[in-house]
Amino acid sequence: QAGAWFRAAKVDAFASTHTCLPFAQRFEIAQGRQGVVFNNGAAGMPNFAGTSYGLITRISDSPDPPSDSLYGCNLRGARFDSVPLRFDSAKFTPRFLARWPPGSAAHASYFTRICAG
Questions:
Q1: Which residues are CB-contacts of 25 (< 8 A; sequence separation ≥ 6)?
Q2: Which tens digits make up the pLDDT trace of 35-67?
Q3: What pTM does this model have?
Q4: Are 85 and 55 in contact (CB under 8 A)?
Q5: pLDDT at residue 44, as a whole number
Q6: CB burial readout 35-71, b (16+ within 10 A) else e
Q7: Residue 24: other Cβ atoms inside 10 A
Q8: Phi, then psi, of 45 in degrees rounded to 5
Q9: CA separation (Å) from 27 to 38, 55, 68?
């Protein structure tokens, strides 16, 4: 169904942000025409187990992936990459806890992910 949406909107790419989980997919819109969806997940929280960085989506007119690209693709003259956004977890954690202590909804939803990816 995404192909139909892309054709109706007359777009080849859709980039969005902050859905909490990263997503990237290249697919066929129509015969011989590719499309791509990129979402960074969350810039301010780890997105993968065992990591301590967020993600941002980099869209560029350079065909070369940046050295820190985790995954990406080229499409019709544009380059899409997921790159890490590193932050100081030791400084961030106390600030998070000051605003969202144990028992709060945000703590329940995010603290384990912040600490363990």
A1: 36, 37
A2: 999 999 988 889 899 999 999 999 999 999 999
A3: 0.88
A4: yes
A5: 82
A6: bbbbbbbbeebbbeeeebbbbebbeeeeeebeeeebe
A7: 20
A8: -140, 150
A9: 12, 22, 24
